[in-house]
Hints:
The structure is a homodimer. Chain A contains 8 helices and 10 strands.
Amino acid sequence: MDDHRLFHLFRRLDIRDTLSADEKQALAEAAGNTVQYSAGSDMSSEGDSPDRSQLLIGGMAARYNRVESGDRQITAFHIAGDFVDLHGFLLARLDHGVSAVTDVTVVEFPHVNLTAVTERFPHLTRLLWLSTLLDGAIHRQWLVAMGRLSALSHMAHLFCEHYLRADTVALAAGMSFPFNITQEQLADALGLSTVHVNRTIQELRRLGLISWDGRTVTIHDWERLQQVGQFDPTFLDLTRSPR
Amino acid sequence: MDDHRLFHLFRRLDIRDTLSADEKQALAEAAGNTVQYSAGSDMSSEGDSPDRSQLLIGGMAARYNRVESGDRQITAFHIAGDFVDLHGFLLARLDHGVSAVTDVTVVEFPHVNLTAVTERFPHLTRLLWLSTLLDGAIHRQWLVAMGRLSALSHMAHLFCEHYLRADTVALAAGMSFPFNITQEQLADALGLSTVHVNRTIQELRRLGLISWDGRTVTIHDWERLQQVGQFDPTFLDLTRSPR
DNA sequence: CGCCACTTTGAAACAGTTCAACGTCAGTGG
DNA sequence: CCACTGACGTTGAACTGTTTCAAAGTGGCG
């Protein structure tokens, strides 16, 4: 009955609005296969026209674009409960690749099923729409951080964001959350060189704000980390209200 | 019958899919007041919880965020046919301000009317959703350009994007389009200083790629401008297909 | 005509990059 | 069980794209 694969998704939506039992069931019925990807593999490629969207239920994924120099820019990180490409439901072609940062498990949602959901469940449709709007809000914060904050602030901002997002889907433990990526991948997300990312992490550590062993980030001073990152959680829209 | 105020919106949607007469009428009925803002004024402020969304039908608007240093980052420019804050329909609070770059005219869509549309017109709902997804796709390209392209490429990319967007809503004339903003505003969008924006424009002019008198941009070499900006129009999703 | 906002220029300073080398550690195979 | 490997992290030093500061030029408008 209850599709445990959707636990994190339900949690993420439940925090913003109330899902009815019917709606939960409709989502469960729209869900298709479970698929695994191993770390480093591509889950979608730029230019694909997928006929299904992928809900991440375990591990971490990144959307990225490549530029001519060979450099890569990561435009989003995804954790359990996130659709990595729900926008692919309505966009004809994917404008980015998606890669598995760690080993990853996804549940596929065929677009025909999503269309059926939108035909019968307007409120649920609005919640799925909301889900993509949250992605957009995060993009905007990344733009602000990239354009107008120092490397140190930008990185602090990213850690704040990820702590709250992990916490929302019950992946945080105390002030720690899984962040199993390389410094190179972090550099690609921040738009910095790996060398500078390394130095910036050291600075955050030296300031006593965080520690990170490559797998788990622990925040030692949440208040000051937010200050350094000029972080205001409003954009994550973490309040329950009817949509 | 036919609400001429929605001309640019219909055009923008029509390019991606087919709108039925019923759907057009539903949108026309959902439309409310026409409102004007003069250049420089704020159309919404960060933290607002608006009860309506604003469809731009004339002029140019920008979404922006401020950081502690007082610097501003513009995260989107909007022209006729764009909703400047359709995401505000489902997001509880606006995570940015919206300012009128030029004198601006908008049509307000009360959120109650939008909710009613989503309850009765699933396909039209998907098109409105698509509209916000296009914003997201543009955000992603801005992130890539900001993180991994030079100032020159970034600026070239922006001009390519705006030319095509203007063309879609019949605002381009030949290879020219209205771009009535200051270099400071452009700097805030590119995440650069005004001084460097000035020098970068001069470089684009010197290369014979564009001219710009502060009001209208003319592209002199579309091919090379795209090359310099590493511009691929895929992300604008300019093909008609059922959604 | 004169003002004010905007653009342009030059020079010094700086944040972040690049290049090249070295350190570390987990996994692998002999 | 230990030497080897390869990926990842760390360090130093030179370099560069962009910023900052300060001043001068331009032009539309009241």
